Known about the structure:
Layout: H1 11-16, E1 19-22, H2 33-53, E2 59-63, H3 86-95, H4 98-109, H5 115-129, E3 136-140
Parallel strand pairs: 1-2, 2-3
Helix pairs in contact: 2-5
Function: Catalyzes the reduction of fatty acyl-CoA to fatty alcohols.
Protein name: Fatty acyl-CoA reductase
GO molecular function: alcohol-forming long-chain fatty acyl-CoA reductase activity; alcohol-forming very long-chain fatty acyl-CoA reductase activity
Amino acid sequence: CKTADDVSLNPTFFHQVSIVFHSAATLKFDEELRKAVDQNVRSVMRLMDICDRLPNVEAFIHVSTAYSNAERDAIEERIYPAPAPLDQLLALVDAAPPQLLTEITNKYISPKPNTYTFTKAIAENVVQQHGNQGYSVAIFRPTIVVSSLRTP
């Protein structure tokens, strides 16, 4: 994923963006934790940093999943506490050798059933904790996301 500094946006485009949708993710339930964090958590952090630089952005909509809290009996329309502290998670995936990370993943993400739901829950907290930057944020939790038959 690119950082805000890596992205070169045409100044005209930069001023025309008012709504940003983030729907990119790895959907592989058993994705290696490091890759799942990069694609499902860090991508949200990076895109929100880019949004902070957009002068006319009014809203950021993050596509999560209804299964981000699948271990709960009932899921309300609220953000639940993160299953792990963000700074701890980022330090772990940055420092742990791949073999060790593989060995500890299931215990670390528990009670989440897989790295997909674990990282999507963390990402929801990232959106919430990013704070009020002068634009609205929303989290959309569909039960399934599929591609279209053809472009609209």
